[in-house]
Amino acid sequence: MIKLGLIGFPLGHSFSKNYYLSKFEDEEINDVNYDLYSLENINQFPSLFLNDNRFRGFNVTIPHKQTVMGFIDDLSIEAKEIGAVNCITVHRSEDKVSLKGYNTDAFGFETSLTPLLTPQHNRALVLGNGGAAKAILYTFEKLGIPYTIVSRSKTNGHLTYEQLNEDLISSHPIIVNCTPLGTFPNIEECPQIPYEYISNRHLLYDLIYNPVETLFLQKGRSQNAITKNGHEMLILQAEKNWQIWKDNF
Fold first, then answer.
1. What is the rounded CA–CA span in Å between residue 100 and residue 141?
2. Contact indicator for 223, 186 with CB cutoff of 8 Å
3. Catalytic (active site) residue 65
4. CA of 42: how far to CAs of 48, 58, 65, 76, 79, in Å?
5. pLDDT tens across 205-227, in order?
6. Active site residue: 3, 17, 65, 240, which one?
7. Topology (CATH level 3) of domain 2-103
8. Handedness of CA 173, 193, 226, 222 (dihedral sign)
9. Which residues contact 70 (CB under 8 A, 6 or more apart)?
């Protein structure tokens, strides 16, 4: 039995486990299993794949997407440039175990975003500057879309939420929520931006997929903006992970 899994902490409800186990059942893949491995300390990670040669791959979620890179022997171009890993392959030879790290978040975001883009979507506001934002910034750089980061503190030239005004909102027709604000069960929360300046020229994208429509997206829709949640991005990156793992089986 080939073993795959998700590492992170804490791990509650997991989209990944449900998704892959359903996929395996639907496609009659009987020799692969996927499970959750809650690791409070990333230094616990090697004990998983070193003590069990059935492991062939992992997903990585918060808070380990960056710290896990200390255990990676090789990085894909995207993972290296983004500085974060969410997919790992385990390679085994007679006397060595090596890991390669990938970032499929960027693939998922770009593939789900680009069909929505029109020529007017020429500048972006990125809400939040944590690990979730890294793949988003990489994608905008790849697409040649200038972006401005909005964070709670005025560091590294970022804007603060208090600085957002009509001109800034109007001149940034793409707004991406990379914060956890609005995630279930805290569905009454949303980033504090002046939603009254959102228009039908805007595209609001939320990385959150639970709930299906966050308050951020509700407020955008009420202003006639195009809105999209993170569910398709999640599915796209999950399928990309599977292709990467399969090539290593």
1. 24
2. no
3. yes
4. 11, 13, 10, 21, 18
5. 999 999 999 999 999 999 999 99
6. 65
7. Rossmann fold (3.40.50)
8. negative
9. 42
In the chain, CATH 3.40.50.720 sits at 106-232
Rounded to 5 degrees, what are φ and ψ at 102? -130, 160
Task: Please name every residue paired with 8 in a beta bridge, in sequence order, or none if there are none.
Answer: 38
Listed residue (11, 8, 33) closest to 20, CA to CA? 33
Closest by CA to 201, choosing from 158, 171, 181, is: 171
Angle between helices 231-246 and 15-26 (to 10 degrees): 60
Q: What is the dihedral of CA 124, 238, 42, 179, to 10 degrees?
A: 30
CATH domain 106-232 topology: Rossmann fold (3.40.50)
| Token output for 85 | 């890993």
Rounded to whole angstroms, how far apart are CA atoms 63 and 45?
Answer: 13
Residues of the chain within CATH 3.40.50.10860 domain(s) are 2-103
What backbone torsions phi and psi does residue 84 show, to the nearest 5 degrees? Answer: -155, 150
Region 89-96 average pLDDT: 91
Confidence of residue 13 (pLDDT cuts 50, 70, 90): low
The Cα–Cα gap between 17 and 101 comes to 20
- State the Cα angle at 232 between 242 and 113, rounded to 5°: 110
Cα–Cα distance between 114 and 117 in angstroms, integer?
Answer: 5
